[in-house]
Structure formats: C-alpha cells, structure tokens
Amino acid sequence: MAEKVSIITNIYGDNGGEQLPLNLKDKLCLMTDGKCYVNNAFLDDNDVVQLLSLWKESNLLKELIYESSAEIKARYDLKDKTILNTSLVQKEIKDLFSYCVSKDASDVHIMVRDNECIIKVRSLGDLHRVHDLSHEKGNSICRTIYTTMCDSADKNFQPKKAQGARISALFLPDQLSGARVATTPTENGYYMVCRLLYKPKDKNPTLKQLGYEDFHVEDLEKLAAKTSGVTIISGPTGSGKSTTLQVVISDIITQAEGKSHVITVEDPPEYTIFGWEPAKQTIISESQEEITDKKIKCYATQTPVMNVKDSAQKAEKFNLAISAAMRLDPEIIMIGEVRDAASAGAALQAAMTGHQVFTTVHANNALTIFPRLIDIGAKKELACDADVVCGLIAQRLTKKLCPHCCKSLLDNMDEFLKRQGAIATLKRLLVSFGAYKNYEEIKHINDVNVMLEAIKDVDLSGVRIRNPDGCTNCNFNGLSGRSVVAEIIMTDQKYMELILQDKKAELKKYWYKDLKGIDMQMHGLIKVKQGLADPIEMERELGQFDLHEDIHFDFFYKLLNSYELPTLERMLENGFYIQDFKNKYPSYFNKPEIINKPQKNPKLKKAN
After folding, report:
1. What domains are there in the chain, each with its CATH number?
2. How crowded is residue 289: how many other Cβ atoms within 10 Å of its Cβ?
3. pLDDT at residue number 531
4. 340 pLDDT more than 50
5. pTM of the predicted model, to two decimals?
6. Among candidates 476, 465, 478, 461, which has minimal Cα distance to 581?
C-alpha cells in the first residue's frame, strides 16, 4: 500500500527543528514524496534559496513544481483544517477515556459496522453501552486513535487487517500509563479494543488487598523465596495476572533490598515494576558512619517486545528477548506469557540453569496448566520436575460488594428470593456450606422456611447481598471494585509422576485430598461466607456452586468456619462501625464465643 503523502512543516524535515516561518507559506511547500511546490517569482528570495539548498543536501528535495502563491497557501490551509479536525476527534477520544477512568473501566470496545458504530466500556467485568454513532464517526475515531495517537508497526490503519499498537500516555488522562490497541476485521466492518493500563500507585497493593487469603499468601511467599524454578499464573484475559505478577515481583525486590537483578520480557510492559531498597546514604563523621533509614525505589529491568509486523515475527523477537535476558546476569526473570514451544522451552531452560522464573499462560484452572504447556510444545519430561516447575496458580476477578450499602441475606431474604435463580442458588449455597449432604436432598424443597431449618449448625449471619440501589460510595451500583479468587498448587514429585503417567483422576484426587487443595470455587464460597461477595454474582463468575467429590471436606469446613470472626474484622477494615453491625446482626453478638472474646481492634473499643 502506498504511503500517504503529507506536508513537511519544519525546516529540517522529519528530523525536527524549527517550524517553517509563516512568511514562507505562500512561497514554497515541501511534500514527503520529495516534490516541492514553489512560486517562481520567489526563486531569488534569499530564504527560499537557502531552504531549497538545505533540502537538496538532505535528500528531501527531489523535484521542483511551480505553482501560484494562492495554490501553495491552499495546501497549508487544507493541512491546518485536517489538523484541526483531528484535534477535535482526539479531544472526543480523550473525553471518552476520562469517562472510563471515572468508572474504573478496564477496556473500551468499538464496533464499527456498515451503517453504525457502537461503543461499550468494560467496568467491573461487565460491558456497558455508552455511545451509538454513525459509521463515519466511528471510522474517524478508530483511524484517529491508530494513526495519530499510537506507536504502531503499520503506518496506516487497515480495517481489513488485524493490527495491534499502543496509545501513548501523552494522549491519555493522567491516571493512565498507556493503552493496548487491538483490531480485527468482522463480517460487516471491524472491531477495536483498547485495554487501559493504569499507572501504579507509589505504594504497591498487597496480595491480601488483591483478594488472596492468608493461606494463599503463605504459599506465594514460599514460591517467592525459592532461588530457582518456574511459577506459572493462568487465567483468561483481564483476570489480573499481570497485577499479581507485579505485586509478587515487587515484594521480591523489596525483600532482597535491591540486591537481586530482576529482568522482564513483556509484549509490551503494562505496569512499572518496582520495590524498595535502603537509600544507603552514609555520612562519615569522626570515624563513625551514620546510615539513614530512608528508602528509595528499585526498578526491575523491563524489556519490551513491540512494533512487529505479524505473529511469527513477534514469536521470534519474544524468544530472542528471553535468550538475551538470560545473558544479562539476572536472578529473576519474568516472561509476560509462554505462548509457544520456544518460549516454554526458554522458561524451563532458565529455571534449570538456576534462575527464578515467573510467567503466565492461558489455561482454565491450575490443574490444566500442564496439559496447556504440553499442548503448546513444552517437553513433558523436562517440565515434570518439581524442582523445575514449582507453583501453578489460577485466578479470576469477582465483583466485591460495597461495604457501605450491602444487605444481610437473612434480614432481606424476601428481596433476595425475587431475583432470578435465587432459590436454586440458595439451595446450592446451603449444600456447599454443609447444611445438606447433597443437592438431591434439597432439590424438591421450595419452602424457604423448611430449607432454613437445617442451618442451625451453619452460620449465614455474615452472608450479604447486593443492594440494587447502591449508595454514593459505590456510584449507586452496589459494587466496589473486584477481588481475586484463586487456587494454588505447590507441586511435589508425586504430583509430577501422576502427570507423567497421565493419571488425571488420581492427580485430581491427590491434590484435593492429600495436598488439601482449595480451588477457585471454594475460595469464592469463603468470600461469600465473609460477606465480601454476593452469592448470585459469584455463581455468575465461577459457575454454579458444586464442590468436587474429592475435596478434603473436613479441612475445607474447618477453614470455612474459621472465617466467622474475621468477618467482623473485614467489615471494620472496609468502613463499617460496630454499632451498625450490632444493629444488623444482633444474633451474631449473642454467641458465647463473641461475647467472651476480648476485642483487640481499636475501632471496636472506640465504637463501644
């Protein structure tokens, strides 16, 4: 495709420099194809002579074409009008991104069809329709994004070709560091998605703030403490894998006080990864050293893989970057994604040569990470070593209830039961919490009072539901961000042997029973028990509650019931006050273990 010809508006051409003076814009006009339109009446003009000589020496000038001053001026006027129109569209795009930031949105979806354009934004995991535009307007927005706001491999926007690019932070609200752009042709138009990349805060979030439980954090800390081996995180696009990696590696940098070299290979880097190290500011006085306790940021070395023309070139550059990273004296290597046999082999090789490696892969859950690795070409005999592949993690993001306006399930049962599918969800919840042995036992019971008779030994007082009206704290939608649900497999040699022997059923039973595995659905139930998630919303995210028959039930129920008391602490952390809690759940405070428990939380003492 021929490149678009445009006007060169600065003295030194594409290499920058001063802008062409206004008094010359009716005398000559240089184009990017080397043609220079000049009014022959000014061929003796000193400024014109100098410019023509400069452009000729720089190989910018290839052909002189004579035009009138009016014709030359019209060329500049047309360019200025195009720039103005582009600037107006850019402002509209910036306004759209600002709106997305105000809604904490993660993606912008633009569907351009033959006769219309539909724009949706993804907020809290759901797509919301925000604009219905004409085809011409949508096309103008997409072209402006790609050709004027992006660092792209292709100079031109081509709707009939899948393309990728990254929007510069210069065109985005201050809260964003960039945006990944991907396009694809469709049957009657094309589709563009912009993934918004938010700037990290000065203080990195903790794993618990992301949604991991104490037992997860303990496992992740063990994996982070290893000196070699691969830890793999799986999940679909938008499941928070990159954020989890960022937090884990930031913690490693801080724990090592900046003494370890961390290098990443990403396509492209999404977030700045940093930890903290002592400033080591030493003042020597009278033969004594005084070392300050100030801390400074210590950054990972983040290497991008960008501006590639196709997937084959991307794979080649990605694998070359991994090989190059291993020669840069790292202790820890983060590989953005294992996507083919070469990158999988490079990750395993790095682990076998004494490096600690973190990476991601697209797999449905932790148990399917190994089949996925083998499917993309990893050598089974190399991967099935507990010293090489140490940890398998899968995660999703689920909606968090607004702590300020959510409602007690027990106090609002009638309202809950009016929601679609609520009775079935309640039945599955009671079975999962151990009130019934199985779903068959409760399947034909539709009287809620009869159902609830069986919950004497199951505490539902902490379970809360979404307030459909919301409040000012949650922008009136009843939700407050998203939280991780996860499962972690700490591999051992028996686990690897079962994979080598292709004993899938035994492998699953070994993880659940012997390793006491907690899967994502079990973690989701823990969040429901804590009152952090609505049970219906949780089923929408993770599927219907249906505990696997091989789980270690005694261990799980002991773990589940251990969250009775922490529920109160979690609520206080999220802005509740003790009197509000007493008013909502008086039965909770009549329990002997609550009455007799010494209250250590300062909020409790103050509120009482």
Report:
1. 13-67 (no CATH), 99-198 (3.30.450.90), 207-400 (3.40.50.300), 408-479+521-607 (no CATH)
2. 8
3. 93
4. yes
5. 0.75
6. 461
Chain centroid to CA 289: 44
330 bridge partner residues: none
Provide long-range contacts, Cβ within 8 A and 24+ apart, for 277-286. Answer: 277/253
Question: Which tokens hold the place of 152?
Answer: 């792209």
The set of long-range contacts for 86-95, using a CB threshold of 8 Å and a minimum separation of 24, is: 86/144, 86/148, 89/140, 89/141, 89/144, 90/144, 90/148, 90/149, 90/171, 92/141, 93/141, 93/144, 93/145, 93/149, 93/171, 94/171, 94/172, 94/173
pLDDT tens column, 192-229? 999 998 887 657 789 999 999 999 999 999 999 999 99
**DSSP string of 291-342, one letter each residue:** E---EEEEE-EEEE----SSHHHHHHHHHHHHHHHHTS--SEEEES---SHH
Number of C-beta neighbours around residue 114 at 10 A: 8
297: which 2 tokens? Answer: 């940021």
Distances (CA, A) of 402 to 65, 99, 163, 236, 399: 68, 21, 39, 25, 9
99-108, 450-459, 516-525: segment of lowest average pLDDT: 450-459
What's the chain's length in residues? 608
Task: Dihedral sign for Cα 158, 159, 162, 166, please.
Answer: positive
What contacts 562, CB < 8 A, 6 or more positions away? none
Amino acid occupying residue 292: T
What Å distances lie between residue 364 and 118, 278, 367, 476, CA to CA? Answer: 30, 40, 8, 33
Angle at the Cα of 45 from the Cα atoms of 43 and 50, rounded to 5 degrees: 90
CA distances from residue 199 to 146, 179, 264 in whole angstroms, order as listed: 22, 11, 18
Residue 445: pLDDT over 90: no
Tokens 């509120």 locate to: 607
Kindly report, residue by residue over 312-327, the tens digit of the pLDDT. 777 788 888 888 898 9
Q: Which of 178-187, 264-273, 505-514 has the lowest mean pLDDT?
A: 264-273
Question: Strand, coil or helix: what is 387?
Answer: coil
Main-chain dihedrals φ then ψ at residue 193, nearest 5 degrees: -125, 130
Q: Which amino acid is at 505?
A: A
Q: Exposed, middle or buried: residue 415 (CB in 10 Å: 0-12, 13-18, 19+)?
A: middle
Q: pLDDT digit string (tens) for 65-75?
A: 888 888 888 88
Q: Work out the end-to-end distance of the chain between its first and last CA atoms, rounded to an integer number of angstroms.
A: 74
H or E, element range at 197: strand 189-198
Residues 6+ apart with CB under 8 A from 378: 338, 341, 344, 345, 348
Burial readout 250-285 (b: 16 or more C-beta within 10 A, e: otherwise):
bbbbbebebebebbbbbbbbbbebbbbbeeeeeeee
pLDDT higher for 71 or 533?
A: 533
CB 440 within 8 Å of CB 389: no
- Which parts of 531-586 fold into alpha helices (H)? 535-542, 553-561, 564-573, 578-584
Residue type, 52: L
Are 252 and 276 in contact by the 8 Å Cβ rule? The answer is: no
Q: Comparing C-alpha atoms, which of 421, 424, 425, 430 is closest to residue 453? A: 430
Going edge to edge, which strands form the sheet with 105-113? 126-133, 117-123, 105-113, 189-198, 176-186, 163-167, 150-152
CA 432 vs. chain centroid, Å, equals 30
Spell out a b/e string for 477-511, using b for 16 or more CB atoms within 10 Å of the CB, else e.
bbbbebbbbbbbbbbeeebbebbeeeeeeebbbbb
